[in-house]
Amino acid sequence: MRSIASRMSVMSGEGALSVYARAKQMEAEGRSIIHLELGEPDFHPGPSVIAAATKALEEGKDRYCPVAGIPELRQELAAYLQRTRNITVSADNIVIAPGCKAILFFAMMALLEPGDEVLFPDPGFPGYPSITLGLGAVPVPFELSPRNQFQPDLKDIAAKITRRTRMLITNSPGNPTGTVYTDAVQRGLAELAVEHDLWVLSDEIYARIIYGGEYLSMLRYPGMAERTVIIDGFSKSFAMTGWRIGYAVAPPEVSVALSMMAVNSYTCVAEFTQYACVEALRDLDGTTPKMVAEFSRRREQFIHGLNRVPGFHCQTPEGAFYAWVDIRGTGASAEEVCRILLEDAGVAAIPGAAFGPAGKDFVRFSFASSVANLKEATQRIMKASAAWQGSLVAR
Ligand code: PLP
Q: Does the beta carbon of 100 lie inside 6 Å of ligand 1?
């Protein structure tokens, strides 16, 4: 009998994409919607990046190209990581892929056996447990709690490690909380990984979007070089979501495995986009610092505005571009709050359970939207809050 493979029934979609679909449908019906659901910068790459893509196309750079990526991009990435993250990596250890998600998927596929346990943050990026389950491995969430400023709790994680634990996933700055893991926490995580001989999958996609301080990659800690796979890409730090380019920095044997994944799936990433990415890394237009400075202004304004909404409480995120709002004070569920915001106020946001059970009392808003949009959104949210204030009074 023809059937869909059973792994598909254990994988899950993304809350952000389903809210986006409903918001788009409402827009098509003539409603005014402010989109704060997707994690997408409202910036575009600078003119030098566009010019590099155009030039590459004009020069006929639209062919099959090296599986792990063109040497120019891998070398530029090694220099960029040294400059911005103070880590020394060889271009040979970098594999280019069509997006961070793709390389995340392939790295997990290359490293996990069925039954292996994978520690990952809850709330966190929905792909971590979904891919784990799809590979027949076992997701083991560790909670990021407001009591702990959303930092991983080392004791809790240590208690969850068993003989089957194979991988620890870290994500700093984190989606959806915006937490930048402290040096002490990362050092502790690295020690646990060494002690229990774990792979560390360090999702550093928001590394450039931090609001102060130096970024500390997991690769900087003792014993990490041979066990860490960094996942990063151009979607967030370079506002290139639709270009679909990501990369992994991995120990030699893992890079070989990732290239094998590439051979068996996407073959190579579009050559001309890779030339554009070389230019993005050089950042002659200063796009990334300008964008981060703008996000920083919006963060101040938006978090302040949200904290004035009755029943909302939001800690100031240290990185990424998400407001992670504790809505327990509203007396309503996060799903109800999001429904009111979308249907009554035309503001699209995501109920926190989309990022794992520990997110159930939270709502995620992206502040990668214009100041005018954020101001209008705050006013609309304030007005809509009458709905839950009414329900509180009625109790
Ligand atoms: N990892 C995290 C933590 C993310 O938030 C996202 C996107 O939202 C991704 C990975 C996927 O990035 P990409 O668009 O490059 O596939």
A: yes
Tell me whether residue 348 is in a domain. yes
Q: Which of 251, 282, 313 is the last residue of a domain?
A: 282
Q: Helix 127-134 crosses helix 100-111 at what angle (to 10 degrees)? A: 40
- Do 202 and 348 have their domain in common? no
Q: Please check whether residues 356 and 301 belong to one and the same domain.
A: yes
Interval 281-297: pLDDT, tens: 999 989 999 999 999 99
In the numeric block, the tokens 């504790």 are attached to 326
Report whether residue 171 contacts ligand 1, using a CB cutoff of 6 Å: yes
Backbone angles phi, psi at 160, to 5 degrees: -90, -5
Tokens of 352: 């926190």
Q: Which amino acid is at 146?
A: P
Ligand 1 centroid from CA 312, angstroms: 27
Residues 131 and 275 in one domain: yes
What's at 332, amino acid-wise? Answer: A
Q: Residue 184's domain spans which residues?
A: 47-282
Q: How many angstroms separate the Cα of 10 from the Cα of each of 74, 106, 139, 395?
A: 35, 18, 11, 39
Q: Span 156-185, mean pLDDT?
A: 98
The CA 142 to ligand 1 mean position distance, Å, reads: 20
Mean pLDDT of 351-367: 97
Q: Are residues 292 and 277 in the same domain?
A: no
